[in-house]
C-alpha cells in the first residue's frame, strides 16, 4: 500500500513508524525540513519538505498512484485543503484528516464531508478521543490504561502491581488453575521498560505493568484478585476548561448516576464559555496551581482530579498539588511521551497521551478488511486488534494451540454466538467469530496475514 502522511509531528511520525514497519511504501510531507529529516533518518520512509496542500508537493510525494493520504498537520484548514486536492487533482481513494476545531466537528454540519463537498472519508478529532480516554480512566481509577472491545463485552486494563498484590510471584498457569472461572487473560507485561507477551510459566513481580483482557462482568472480581480497590468517582475536579475539559464535563453531566464536577479555568473567556454551555458544573476562573482556589473547589473532598490544560508541566504540577491537598486520585494529560516515566515518582495515578489515542484512532481506519478496532499499547510498542475471522483465513476452523502465531502474540478474548469467552488452547476459532489479539508491533503484519484481512481492503 502506498501512503502519504502529511505532518511529521508526533502523530505523523508514529503512524509512519507503524506503516513503514509493515513494509508499506510511505512518504512523509512537512514544511519543516528538520522534522522530515528526523523521519527519513529514523524510519524507512521517503520525505518531502514543503506545504502539504500544494498540488506540486503532493505530486512529488507520489500522489498520482497513492492508495491513501493522512492529513495530520497542525492546521485543520491545511488538512482539509490537502484532502480536497488529493481528491480533485489526484483521485486518491482514501483520505483521513485530523481536525481539532469543534466548529468543524458539529454533527449538524456533517454533510460538509460528503464526496461532492469536502471529500474526507474519515475525520479524526484528538480532543474527542482524549475526552473519551479520560472518561474511561475515571470509570476504572485503579487502572492506568483501559479500552473496551467486543461490543463492550471485554475490557483491556493496564495495572501496576504493588507489594500488596496477592498474586505476586504466581505463574500465570497456576493463576488460571486457582481462578478457573475468571474470564481474564494477562496478554502483556512490561518489566524494566520492556513489553512482552508472557508464557504460561511466567510469573508476575512487584512493579510490573500488566495488561489484562477481561470479560466486562468479571472486572470487579479481577481487580480484587490483583489487590485493586474500585472506588466510585462521585466528585471530580477538572483543571482546564478547554475543548477536552468541556467535553468531559458534558459527558459527566449526561451520566445517569450523579457526578458532581467542578472546572478550574485560568482564561476568563474560556471559563465563561464553559459556564454558558454547562448546566450543573461549577466553573471557577483562576489558576489550577493556586492552593486557595483548589480549596475553594473542595479538592480535599474530591474523588478524582483530571488536569487537561494545554501545558504538560501545568498538568503535572496541578495533579501533584491536588494530591498533596488530599485528593486521592489524579489523572494528567501529557503530550510529551518522554515525561511518562515521571508519573509514578510524582504520585500521578494515570496519564493520557493524546498521541497514543489519536494513533489508535487513525490505525482503526487504516487496518484492512474486517479489523474493527485497534488500540495502541504503550509508546506504540504493541497493538490490540479486534477482528472478524474470515472463511478465507488460515486460522478459521483451527484450535488456538494449533495456530502458528508469532511468540509476541496472544489471543485475549473471543466473541462466539454473541458470548464473550476466555480463550484456551483448545478453543476453536471459526469463520464469523470475533477475536481480540495482542501483538507486539513487529508481529502485527504477520497477524494481519493470518487473518487474511487485506483481501477486502476497500
What is the distance, rounded to the nearest whole angstrom, between the alpha carbons of the first and last residues?
Answer: 12 Å
Number of strands: 24
Beta-strand content: 25-35%
Strand order of the largest sheet: 3-2-1-4-5-6
The pLDDT mean sits at 88
Fraction of helical residues: 25-40%
What is the alpha-carbon Rg in Å? 23 Å
What is the fourth-level CATH superfamily of the domain at 2-124?
Answer: NAD(P)-binding Rossmann-like Domain
Which spans have pLDDT < 50 for at least 5 consecutive residues?
454-458
CATH architecture of the domain at 2-124, by name, is 3-Layer(aba) Sandwich
- Assigned CATH class of the domain at 2-124: Alpha Beta
Main sheet record: 6 strands, parallel
Give the number of helices.
14
Shape: globular
Structural class by SSE content: alpha/beta
How are the secondary structure elements laid out?
Layout: E1 2-6, H1 10-21, E2 25-30, H2 33-42, E3 46-49, H3 55-60, E4 68-71, H4 76-88, E5 94-98, E6 122-124, H5 126-139, E7 145-149, E8 154-160, H6 172-178, E9 184-191, E10 194-196, E11 209-215, H7 219-225, E12 235-239, H8 243-254, E13 260-265, H9 268-277, E14 282-285, H10 291-296, E15 304-307, H11 312-324, E16 330-333, H12 343-346, E17 350-352, H13 354-366, E18 371-377, E19 382-388, E20 398-399, E21 409-416, E22 419-421, E23 428-429, E24 434-440, H14 444-451
Parallel strand pairs: 1-2, 1-4, 2-3, 4-5, 5-6, 12-13, 12-15, 13-14, 15-16, 16-17
Antiparallel strand pairs: 7-8, 8-11, 9-10, 9-11, 18-19, 19-24, 20-23, 21-22, 21-24
Helix pairs in contact: 1-13, 5-8, 5-13
Amino acid at each position: 500500500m502506498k501512503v502519504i502522511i502529511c505532518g511529521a509531528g508526533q502523530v505523523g511520525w508514529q503512524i509512519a513508524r507503524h506503516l513503514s514497519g509493515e513494509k508499506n511504501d510511505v512518504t512523509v510531507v512537512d514544511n519543516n525540513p528538520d522534522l522530515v529529516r528526523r523521519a527519513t533518518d529514523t524510519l524507512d520512509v521517503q520525505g518531502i519538505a514543503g506545504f502539504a496542500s500544494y498540488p506540486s508537493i503532493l505530486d512529488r510525494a507520489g500522489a498520482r498512484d497513492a492508495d491513501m493520504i493522512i492529513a495530520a498537520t497542525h492546521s485543520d484548514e491545511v488538512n482539509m485543503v490537502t484532502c480536497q486536492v488529493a481528491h480533485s487533482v489526484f483521485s486518491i481513494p482514501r483520505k483521513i484528516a485530523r481536525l481539532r476545531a469543534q466548529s468543524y466537528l458539529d454533527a449538524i454540519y456533517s454533510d460538509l464531508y460528503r464526496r461532492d463537498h469536502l471529500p474526507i472519508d474519515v475525520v479524526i478529532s484528538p480532543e474527542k478521543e482524549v475526552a473519551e480516554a479520560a472518561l474511561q480512566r475515571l470509570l476504572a481509577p485503579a487502572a492506568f490504561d483501559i479500552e473496551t472491545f467486543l461490543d463492550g463485552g471485554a475490557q483491556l486494563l493496564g495495572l501496576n502491581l504493588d507489594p500488596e498484590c496477592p498474586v505476586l510471584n504466581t505463574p500465570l498457569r497456576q493463576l488460571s488453575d486457582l481462578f478457573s472461572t475468571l474470564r481474564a487473560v494477562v496478554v502483556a507485561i512490561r518489566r524494566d521498560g520492556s513489553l512482552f507477551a508472557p508464557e504460561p510459566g511466567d510469573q508476575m513481580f512487584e512493579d510490573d505493568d500488566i495488561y489484562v483482557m477481561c470479560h466486562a462482568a468479571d472486572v470487579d472480581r479481577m481487580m480484587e484478585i490483583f489487590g485493586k480497590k474500585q472506588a466510585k468517582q462521585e466528585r471530580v475536579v477538572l483543571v482546564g476548561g478547554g475543548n477536552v475539559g468541556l467535553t468531559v464535563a458534558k459527558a459527566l453531566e449526561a451520566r445517569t448516576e450523579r457526578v458532581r464536577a467542578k472546572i478550574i479555568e485560568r482564561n476568563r473567556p474560556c471559563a465563561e464559555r464553559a459556564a454558558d454551555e454547562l448546566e450543573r458544573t461549577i466553573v471557577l476562573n483562576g489558576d489550577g496551581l493556586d492552593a486557595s482556589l483548589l480549596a475553594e473547589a473542595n479538592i480535599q473532598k474530591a474523588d478524582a482530579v483530571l488536569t487537561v490544560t494545554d501545558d504538560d508541566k501545568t498538568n503535572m504540577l496541578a495533579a501533584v498539588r491536588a494530591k498533596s491537598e488530599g485528593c486521592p486520585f489524579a489523572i494528567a494529560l501529557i503530550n510529551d511521551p518522554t515525561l511518562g516515566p515521571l508519573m509514578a515518582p510524582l504520585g500521578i495515578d494515570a496519564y493520557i497521551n493524546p498521541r497514543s489515542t489519536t494513533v489508535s484512532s487513525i490505525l482503526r481506519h487504516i487496518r484492512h478488511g474486517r479489523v474493527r478496532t485497534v488500540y495502541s499499547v504503550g509508546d506504540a510498542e504493541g497493538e490490540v486488534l479486534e477482528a472478524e475471522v474470515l472463511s478465507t483465513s488460515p486460522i478459521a476452523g483451527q484450535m488456538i494451540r494449533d495456530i502458528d502465531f508469532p511468540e509476541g502474540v496472544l489471543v485475549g478474548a473471543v466473541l462466539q454466538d454473541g458470548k464473550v469467552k476466555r480463550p484456551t488452547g483448545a478453543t476453536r476459532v471459526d469463520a464469523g467469530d470475533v477475536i481480540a489479539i495482542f501483538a507486539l508491533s513487529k508481529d502485527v503484519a504477520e497477524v494481519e496475514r493470518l487473518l487474511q484481512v487485506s483481501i477486502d481492503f476497500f
